[in-house]
Amino acid sequence: MNDALKIELPQITKANGLGTGPIPIEPYISPEWYEREKKQIFGRAWLCMGRVEQLPEANSFITTEVEVCGVLVLITRNKADKISAFHNVCSHRSNMLVLEPAGTASKFACRYHNWSYRNDGSCLGVPDRENFFDLDLKERGLTPIACDVWEGWIFINLQPEPEVSLKEFLGSFGEAFRDAPFPAAEQFFTIDVGNMRANWKVTIDAFAEPYHVPVLHTATVGATFANKLNPFSRPLSGNARGSHRTLTTFGNPDYTPPEDALVERLAYGNVDTGNVLGSDVNSLDAGGLQNHPAINPNRAPSWATEIAWMFPNFIIFFSPGGFFSIEFWPTSVNTTRWMAKVHIPVAQDVRQRFQQEHHNCRMGEIFLEDVSNLECQQKAMESGAKKEIILQDSEFLLRHSIETVMKWVEAATVREVLK
Ligand code: FES
Ligand SMILES: [Fe+2]
After folding, report:
1. Which numbered ligand comes closest to the C-alpha of 88?
2. Where are the domains of the chain?
3. Which residue from 192, 207, 394 is spatially nearest to 313, judged by alpha carbons?
4. Upstream peptide bond of 56 is cis (omega within 30 degrees of 0)
5. I want to staple 46 with a disulfide (CB 3.0 to 4.6 A). Which of 53, 155, 218, 277 is the partner?
6. Which ligand has its closest atom nearest to the C-alpha of 91?
7. CATH annotation of 3-40+172-418
8. Which is more confidently placed, 53 or 287?
9. Nearest protein Cα to ligand 1, atom 4
10. Does domain 46-162 have CATH number 2.102.10.10?
């Protein structure tokens, strides 16, 4: 590695004030630790549920489940365009109220005895109401869940009275990414892997470090994230931002598809792709992403991705051509529901459409390489052979994540962690 490159590749872990020692495996495999995470992290943190574009018009709704806390969630946009969240539970005998994953409705009726509710949560009607005892409909609306929106992202908080606002929770991360562009936010496809057998931290860690990319992803994108000058794909910057964190990964500017990669060559032709995730660096500076100060903050010319990890379980990946996000929802100590939403703009011509399809299929291949590896890692961790994992500087995000997890699990109050 030459001297010039050493200057471009910063030391990150120490610069962010983190330790350098081994990390215990216990939090990745212990049922007792998982019980504490449920209460102290997922029961107290603001959790990202998706984007406002998933509720595209007045009376849109979506439903979901936060399995880790056993909570059923209904999110609505009412006719005044206010987005609200409720427990998706009927006030009569606690049946699940809305079964559809998404739709449009100004009111909801429970299929059990037909109690009905407006999409602002108020109780609208009760059949044979006179036969109840002192029933006051005003007291029988849906149970609200704290809900707020940041830059088009919808968050909920499962504390009945959240200790801190969403703005306080996001802190310097929210400030840094203020006005970040989200091109093609309304157009996305979902890759839902479902439940995989690995702890949620094992799972999310695999999407937060470039060290593995030239090795695990040799068959797909290894060569697009490393070159002779940066053979181990060291990152270009990394920043701890309160409980959240970011990392800029390197993209090989000299990458061209190999001779025998016929489909890839057909898709990209002689375009300087830079990296596959960016789709087409030259023609797509989607929405001015490359100009935002928090994205590739060191202005490195060969950047591939800005990994923006919002604590605890949500990552937005910005690249020159657009963005995608991945949610990692714990469903037990060693299972995780994994779901990606990939946003792509409307293609302007057939070639671009073909390129997009190649990109989307390639994303699927990369994810499969990651996912198949993780279940083996979880099993090996549970074998008890090792008590610790070792992290290097490129794995900065993982160290900041586990240190933050430990702080939240130990802290009596949220404010104590954020101060
Ligand atoms: S449980 Fe919903 S109407 Fe009875
Ligand atoms: Fe990977």
Report:
1. 1
2. 3-40+172-418, 46-162
3. 207
4. no
5. 155
6. 1
7. 3.90.380.10
8. 53
9. 113
10. yes
